[in-house]
Every structure is written in structure tokens, then in C-alpha cells.
């Protein structure tokens, strides 16, 4: 037996000398409250982060390199016409006080590569869509005529002097450079830009009066000839313009120019140089061999002065402003073939032919209410059904719809009329930045206020209670 007392006895003696612990009755309740506050604080932090992310989508994308091509979607191997053409926000057409384009996205670098589609915004800004990656290019074309405020009213959106070559590598447009106020002759005519090299390769001056304002331009099916229509001016300065005489003509591959009389609202030309002047339902055919002018009439009142020649040059598809799906004129036999049927959604759609694809015509259909349009392949054979192959944005409260299109028809085939491309990612508007900043700031204030309230309550709970 050990002379020392057992360990158990020692522990009992020590326990008898320890004063009893004073544990407040609300200890458990206070612990639970602190745990709940901790959970609430964490939840508030999560809500704040989620709110900030939701209020500022795309902030990381703002820092990405916009010059890098975006990957195309399915069916996008090789160049092609996008199956959805998106309208450009009106803010991208903003101008400075001197009339220059205000947005940095508008560029005078014309080396954008092969294009699939082109059009002009209501404010006169040219838009070109890349055929390879679907990127949108806003171009500052040198002396582009619709950019001049004096003549901007001549181009109400359904027509502008801008045309892509059939292969999409060149862009023809009307230009003018009024520089004086003394009423002297103004350099004007047609320019052709090589979109691959980014250079003006042809500058075709048109003489007459004090200058010729080109209002329409088109290519022959093989991309060698140019046809145009416009107005001859009698007075043209930087601040005033008078133009009362309609003019039209063609430009041969070697640059030779020929005036066509009588003129009309639009002109088309075939690969041999035979030109057709359009003036509503009336047409005048000017043979390339210089023979007499042949007059034709479609006998369709709703025909507009837009047209597309077949590859052989023997048929002309015409635009309409009513419920005709297609109007085709046999130029050599003076025959008119029409194709009509129920309009989409039982409303009036205008039809603009863009080019021939085999025995079908690619048309742009635009509803009268300004909504979304369609790209449609319309077979000449009336027994074949129509094929909607794409969508064209209509107008909204924040943007105008897409006007008359020009497309690179060589990129369109019956088997692969369109391809999938990503939507353009336009910079945010100033209003959206302000709203985003306000929402983010408000969310941050709410989170900080909640955190401060939790901290105050925790400090208050930690103070010793009176006993």
C-alpha cells in the first residue's frame, strides 16, 4: 500500500475547494443567436456577390480583345452568309459636331477581309459582315455619299449606293467631295474598295452639271461590270445642293463609261454589258451591241425599282411592295412570270431580290410593320415551296431595322444557303453603364449596412450582463 492518498481522493478534495461556476441561464440562447447572425452575414455576402454579378454582366468581356475572331457555331466551316443579320444600335452612328463618326468602333481601316453582307444604317453608316467569322465592321468610307447630311434624305433606308461584289471581296459605293462654296464642279462618282487589301482600287468620276450624286449601284453577275443611277446637280456646295435631272449608266471592266437614256431609278447590267434601266413597272433594255433600246413592262403595279439578273442575263427578278412572292421578267421573250401566295403572318411584305441561286432567287422579305424580316429562297418553279434560310432584324425602340441588303451571292448555294455565326457584342450604352453603376453601388451599400448592423448586435451581446 502506498503511503500517499489515492488519486481519486485528491481529485475530490480539489473539487470541493473550487467555487461553483456561474453560468447564465441564457447562454444557450445567446449562442444560437450568434450562430444565426453568422449564417445571416454569410448569406448577405453571397446575395451581394450574386447581385453585383447580375448587375454587371459582361464586365470581364469588356476587357477581352475585341479584334480576336469569335468562333463560329455549327455549320460555319468556310465563308458564308450568316443565318441571322443583327441590326446595329443607333448609338453606334453618333456623330461629333464636325460630322465625323463619334464611336471608336467606326474605322477607316478598310482591310476587313471577304464580306458576306453589307448595308447602310439610317444615319448613313456602312456596315459590313465578315464572311469567315461573322464579325461586324463599321466603316468610315472616304466621302461616302449617304454620310453627307445634304443628301441623306435621298436614301430612306430601302436603297443606298453600296454594293458588294458577288464574291464579297470588293465594295462599290457612291462618293462626292464638295469642298467649296462657289458652286464649282464637285468630284463625284463611284469608288471600288478591295476589302482584302483595304485600298481604293478604282475611282470612277462621273461628269455632268456640277457633279453626279450616285443613288444606286450594282454589279454584273460575274463582278466585272458596274451599273448605276443617280441625279445630276446644277448647284452643289458644302451647304446647298440642287439636283433635278435623273441620270444612269454603266461602267465597263476597262473603265469605259456609257450613259443610258431614258434614265430610271435603278440600273442592272449582265456579263456582256447589256443594261436594263428600271423605273417601276417600266423597263428599258440597252443591248451591248448598241442596237435600239427595247421597252418592256411588267404589268404588275406593285413592282419596285429593284432587280437581280440571272447568271445568263436572260431573266430579271424584280422587287415588289405587295403580296407577290416573286416577279420574273423574261427579257428576250417579253414574258412575265409571277408567283403569289399567302403572305407570312397574313400581312404585307415587301420583296427585294438579292441574287440568283441556281433556279431560285434569294430575296429579302420585310414586313410592313417594321418587324423582323426573312431571307428566303424562292424557286422560279411555282410548284416548289419557299425556303426561309435566315432572319433579318427589324426595328425596336432602341435601334432601327436593317434596310436594303447587299450580299455576296457566290457564297450562297441551295445546299448551304446560310451558316451560323455568333451575335455581335456591341459596347454598352452610357445609360446601361449608369444603371449598372447605380445598381452595383446600391447593392454594396445594402451589404455594408447589413454587415454593420450585425457587428453592432454582436458587440452589444458580448457586453457583460448585470447580475
UniProtKB/TrEMBL annotation:
Record keyword GTP-binding present: no
InterPro entries on file: 6-blade_b-propeller_TolB-like, WD40
Disordered as annotated region, ranges: 62-99
Transmembrane portions of the chain: 39-60, 433-455
Biased composition annotated in UniProt, kind: Basic and acidic residues: 83-99
Gene3D superfamilies: TolB, C-terminal domain (2.120.10.30)
Keyword Transmembrane: yes
Keyword terms: Membrane, Transmembrane, Transmembrane helix
Domain of life where this protein originates: Bacteria
Protein name: WD40 repeat domain-containing protein
Organismal lineage: Bacteria, Bacillati, Actinomycetota, Actinomycetes, Propionibacteriales
Amino acid at each position: 500500500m502506498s503511503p500517499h492518498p489515492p488519486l481519486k481522493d485528491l481529485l475530490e478534495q480539489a473539487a470541493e475547494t473550487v467555487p461553483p461556476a456561474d453560468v447564465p441561464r441564457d447562454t444557450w440562447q445567446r449562442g444560437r443567436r450568434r450562430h444565426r447572425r453568422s449564417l445571416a452575414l454569410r448569406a448577405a455576402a453571397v446575395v451581394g456577390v450574386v447581385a453585383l454579378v447580375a448587375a454587371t454582366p459582361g464586365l470581364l468581356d469588356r476587357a477581352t480583345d475585341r479584334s480576336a475572331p469569335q468562333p463560329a457555331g455549327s455549320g460555319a466551316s468556310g465563308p458564308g452568309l450568316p443565318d441571322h443579320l443583327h441590326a446595329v444600335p443607333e448609338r453606334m452612328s453618333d456623330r461629333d459636331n464636325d460630322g465625323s463618326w463619334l464611336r471608336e468602333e467606326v474605322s477607316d481601316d478598310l482591310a476587313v477581309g471577304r464580306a458576306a453582307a453589307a448595308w447602310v444604317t439610317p444615319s448613313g453608316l456602312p456596315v459590313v459582315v465578315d464572311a469567315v467569322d461573322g464579325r461586324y465592321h463599321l466603316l468610315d468610307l472616304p466621302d461616302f455619299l449617304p454620310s453627307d447630311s445634304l443628301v441623306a434624305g435621298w436614301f430612306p433606308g430601302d436603297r443606298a449606293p453600296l454594293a458588294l461584289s458577288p464574291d464579297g471581296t470588293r465594295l462599290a459605293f457612291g462618293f462626292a467631295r464638295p469642298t467649296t462654296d462657289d458652286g464649282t464642279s464637285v468630284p463625284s462618282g463611284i469608288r471600288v474598295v478591295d476589302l482584302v487589301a483595304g485600298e481604293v482600287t478604282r475611282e470612277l468620276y462621273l461628269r455632268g452639271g456640277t457633279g453626279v450624286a450616285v443613288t444606286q449601284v450594282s454589279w454584273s453577275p460575274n463582278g466585272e461590270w458596274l451599273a448605276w443611277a443617280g441625279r445630276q446637280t446644277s448647284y452643289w456646295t458644302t451647304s446647298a445642293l440642287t439636283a433635278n435631272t435623273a441620270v444612269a449608266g454603266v461602267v465597263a471592266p476597262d473603265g469605259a463609261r456609257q450613259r443610258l437614256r431614258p434614265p430610271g431609278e435603278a440600273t442592272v447590267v449582265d456579263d456582256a454589258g447589256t443594261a436594263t434601266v428600271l423605273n417601276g413597272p417600266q423597263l428599258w433594255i440597252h443591248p451591248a451591241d448598241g442596237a435600239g433600246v427595247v421597252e418592256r413592262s411588267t404589268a404588275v403595279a406593285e413592282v419596285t425599282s429593284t432587280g437581280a439578273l440571272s447568271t445568263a442575263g436572260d431573266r430579271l427578278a424584280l422587287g415588289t411592295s405587295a403580296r407577290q412572292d416573286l416577279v420574273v421578267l423574261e427579257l428576250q421573250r417579253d414574258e412575265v412570270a409571277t408567283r403569289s401566295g399567302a403572305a407570312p403572318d397574313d400581312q404585307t411584305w415587301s420583296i427585294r431580290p438579292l441574287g440568283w441561286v441556281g433556279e431560285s432567287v434569294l430575296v429579302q422579305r420585310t414586313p410592313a410593320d417594321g418587324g423582323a424580316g426573312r431571307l428566303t429562297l424562292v424557286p422560279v418553279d411555282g410548284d416548289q415551296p419557299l425556303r426561309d434560310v435566315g432572319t433579318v432584324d427589324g426595328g425596336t425602340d432602341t435601334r432601327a431595322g436593317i434596310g436594303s441588303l447587299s450580299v455576296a451571292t457566290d457564297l450562297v448555294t441551295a445546299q448551304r444557303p446560310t451558316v451560323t455565326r455568333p451575335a455581335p457584342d456591341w459596347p454598352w450604352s452610357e445609360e446601361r453603364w449608369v444603371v449598372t453603376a447605380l445598381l452595383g453601388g446600391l447593392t454594396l451599400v445594402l451589404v455594408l449596412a447589413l454587415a454593420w448592423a450585425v457587428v453592432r448586435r454582436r458587440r452589444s451581446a458580448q457586453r457583460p450582463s448585470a447580475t
